[in-house]
């Protein structure tokens, strides 16, 4: 055993060193940075001045940051419900023995393989464009002039066009996770339930749902992480502006605060770090809540 | 036991090679530098290698190498430059020169840059730079020049000359009332007088407000959130509302970039207020040859600014202070910013030649040339309305609403005041 320990040390040391240098050091630095006035993200520590909770206060008092938080929560809740419901529906349908299952599964998953920049360009240019877009042409062909005139990329529609496009691409990913969860449930349960006279809906409510609670937890975790880090889609929708009231998210706000924008050279890495810490805290709180609310170890099968 | 020792040794060797791997790449590049032609310098570029600007720069770099024997390593970083350069300079990356928007180059990275007046030929170079650009650049560097400006732009109203002719407009408008007349004539001729993109909607409000009170007062109003107390803030919004009421804006305005500006290429709209890269973009995007005319944003009654004031800007080369080839880097930068390469750059992307001695402007934008000479006041981008990243989206959203006709001037100024 003694030699074994030596081996463990030998193999772990490089990984541990890399972890400390590449992850732990930046994390600690960011935490400290969020309490200081720092201009450039790489400014030496000697140029930092202590600011206490000033960065956090400034953030919470900034209208644009509040807007970005509201946007993020809207995407998280509304998008989350929509994506989970649709993904679960597809998963149930695909595991119920439909023909060409592999084909449908692939079709629904495809948007995940395509780069987010490419797919959002597709949505913006081919679907939402108010001159050539699919929706415009569709309504025009039907003679619905008022609907054809809607500008999906400006004003009150902008957020919803973003949300629809983003959710469209997310469904396939969560569907796959749900499918793998549902397929783990032994078929005997359903057989027995069918014999006892339970219809499909009851089977779903009393067998499938309780047994995939753990999968829900996984999905919630992935969803939280992807929404807290919501960046590319927001940038694509705002482009070529650095950000936009309707679609800005905290991470976009952080990016602009740290690196400045086209018209503004002001940079504030301290505020950026504070955004990062706040986001990390949010993720931790959500994880905690999910763990308390969803217990997946009370059922064994 | 023996096996264990061997594996420990192997592990150590593995770690050692990892460490060595990191180290060797650094020393490798500097080694090859000195062995090639004796001298080599590194240039981080804000262009992507496929852009026409990059082609001109590459040509210049080849010519420079032939002339001096100094090889220039160009790293095409694209517009990510603003996120990369600060960290790279701080980390002591081996960069001799780089470029970015000249305001960003000077204001964000000044502490890493060489004061160009310490270099040979700087005085001579200054005489080639447009005075309005030079003054602006020096104002950010406490009177010293820290960047070599090139690819200059100016801003004003670009219009389709053929439509003006058809509408019977003979003289370009210089005052607000004349501007309204021209708009009416163009509208009567069956075109949308004005179009705009949502990303540059702030320009219209910024210009109109600055025509009344000048850029300094605009910034003061902006920084103090004094929208409801400065009467001109509402006056400018009312002027825009007038344009909307009279139906002078395209029904699609403000459209997602670049749909708004493209309407000129499609022969639907006539005028757009934007920078001098717009004619080239419209021609490239729509594939139509439009003969562009230009006039500065009109002056207003009781206003302080007129044709002499406009948004101008440029890209700028910064020479890194730590570089041991500052002079060479400066020579290369000025080679691009002046003379033949400047002219080639201008004609390849229809931009303004930076060198005052290059008086031949590309046809697409030549209409702006006489005005540029008279220009004495330089506005910042969007007359400073985009200088606060926390507030820009708010102002953009409200100007868009104003142009869409979804808000009144009263609500407009109130919304701006509330958001600050």
Provide an overview of this structure:
Chain A: Belongs to the binding-protein-dependent transport system permease family. Chain A: It is found in: Cell membrane. The complex is a heterodimer of chains A (301) and B (420). Chain A is flat. Chain A has helices at 2-33, 54-61, 63-95, 101-109, 116-127, 134-141, 145-148, 158-183, 187-195, 200-211, 213-228, 232-238, 250-259, 269-293; strands spanning 36-37, 49-50. Chain A has a single domain (54-293), classed as MetI-like fold. With 301 residues, chain A is mostly helical. By secondary structure, chain B is α/β, with parallel strands linked by helices. Chain B folds into two domains: 40-153 and 313-356, Periplasmic binding protein-like II (D-Maltodextrin-Binding Protein, domain 2), CATH 3.40.190; 155-310 and 382-419, Periplasmic binding protein-like II (D-Maltodextrin-Binding Protein, domain 2, 3-Layer(aba) Sandwich), CATH 3.40.190.10. In chain B, 50% of the residues lie in helices and 14% in strands. Chain B has helices spanning 2-35, 52-68, 81-90, 102-109, 122-126, 131-140, 161-167, 176-188, 201-224, 231-245, 259-265, 278-286, 326-337, 339-349, 369-374, 392-404, 409-419, and strands at 39-45, 70-76, 97-101, 148-153, 155-160, 192-195, 269-275, 292-295, 309-311, 313-319, 377-379. The longest helix of chain B has 34 residues, at 2-35. The interface between A and B is large, with 46 and 51 residues.
